[in-house]
Amino acid sequence: MIVKHLEDVIGTKDDVSAATWISRRLILKKDGVGFSLNDTIIKPGTETLIWYKHHIEAVYCIAGEGEIHPEGDRAYPIRPGTLYVLDGHEKHYLRAKSQLRMVCVFTPPLTGAEVHDEEGAYPLVEA
């Protein structure tokens, strides 16, 4: 059994920041459950290009407002209670009107060290 609290992650190496987001990596590959789970903050007024070429991501919004805009598709509003799944590896823009707080599940699981590369992707890290 795994039991953690967000306070156990904040300020550690599993609390990863970038220009437009902060990701608290609660469950990682090392936990051996086949997925990873992040508590993610998207900074207000930002736009992030994301393309998970190697991962499937499910995202559940628990606070804030914004939109997800997959390339070649329409923009979809995000507000508390919104769930979206990038099951087709869709390249997309994530825009935060206000600070967004999202719960994100990845498969294959993240190791914890990932940040978006120049294409907006996380590399597939084996270690």
Give a short synopsis of this structure.
The chain has 127 residues and is mainly β. 3% of the residues lie in helices and 43% in strands. It has a 6-stranded antiparallel beta sheet with strand order 1-2-3-10-5-8, with no helix packed on it.
Give the SSE map.
Layout: H1 6-9, E1 15-17, E2 21-27, E3 36-42, E4 47-50, E5 56-63, E6 66-70, E7 76-78, E8 83-86, E9 92-96, E10 100-107
Antiparallel strand pairs: 1-2, 2-3, 3-10, 4-9, 5-8, 5-10, 6-7, 6-9
- Residue share in helix: under 10%
Mind telling me the C-alpha Rg? Answer: 14 Å
Residues in β-strands, percent:
35-45%
Tally of DSSP β-strands: 10
Mean pLDDT over the residues: 92
Please give a structural write-up.
By secondary structure, this protein is mainly beta. Helix content is 3%, strand content 43%. The protein contains one helix and ten strands. The protein has a six-stranded antiparallel β-sheet with strand order 1-2-3-10-5-8, with no helix packed on it. Strand 2 (21-27) and strand 3 (36-42) form a beta hairpin. The two termini are 22 Å apart.
